[in-house]
Automatic annotation (TrEMBL):
Family annotation (CDD domains): lipocalin_Blc-like (cd19438)
Gene Ontology terms: cellular component: cell outer membrane
InterPro entries, per the entry: Calycin (IPR012674), Lipocalin_ApoD (IPR022271), Lipocalin_bac (IPR002446), Lipocalin_Blc-like_dom (IPR047202), Lipocalin_CS (IPR022272), Lipocln_cytosolic_FA-bd_dom (IPR000566)
Protein's name according to its UniProt entry: Outer membrane lipoprotein Blc
Keywords: Cell outer membrane, Lipid-binding, Lipoprotein, Membrane, Signal
Top-level taxonomic group: Bacteria
């Protein structure tokens, strides 16, 4: 419940933040584009957070995962899980709802009971490997970004490729944070 409230507050803060705060990780003069096609069915399931740009709503989170599932109404359920302070920390979850806005472009809310546009955050899939085992996610504002994988660790080559996608979209990859995952 606390994680859900924090995530909802974070999305609200991000949506209403001044432009100066919203682009701290990405040069917005550099074009950004989502993948031209995203097989949502293949994207569903469990993803491990390999790297993220720091944000206060995930502060102290380790062992972070995101799980996506198709809902009966055609939208996507989102369950983010975090272990507070380390892999043996208290489990916190945040539940949200995503909808596809365009190919590779989703919007997510963690307060679905509040149907206002400013509580939805952009979630753009910038790249996904052919096997749907590594994904790179960002948003046009550059306020958030993640490298996700189907396993808790990825190879150095996979990480370099994902960071290259972020850099190509104007992100400063030197600011990435690598949360602790099982096995590292």
């Amino acid at each position: 419940m606390i994680f859900r409230t924090l995530a909802a507050t974070a999305l609200f803060a991000l949506a209403t933040a001044p432009a100066a705060l919203a682009d701290k990780y990405r040069d917005r003069d550099v074009p950004i584009a989502a993948v031209e096609s995203l097989d949502v069915e293949r994207y569903l399931g469990l993803w491990y957070e390999i790297a993220r740009f720091p944000n206060w709503f995930e502060k102290g989170c380790a062992g972070v995962t995101a799980e996506y599932a198709l809902r009966e109404d055609g939208q996507i359920s989102v369950v983010n899980t975090c272990r507070d302070g380390g892999l043996d920390g208290e489990v916190k979850q945040s539940e949200g709802v995503a909808r596809v806005e365009a190919p590779g472009e989703l919007s997510v809310t963690f307060v679905p009971w509040l149907p206002l546009p400013f509580v939805r955050g952009d979630y753009w899939v910038l790249d996904v490997t052919e096997g749907y085992d590594v994904a790179v996610v960002g948003n046009p504002k550059g306020s958030t970004g993640w490298i996700l994988a189907r396993t808790p660790q990825i190879s150095d080559a996979q990480l370099a490729a994902a960071k290259s996608v972020l850099a190509g979209a104007g992100y400063d990859t030197s600011k990435l944070f690598y949360p602790q995952q099982p096995g590292n």
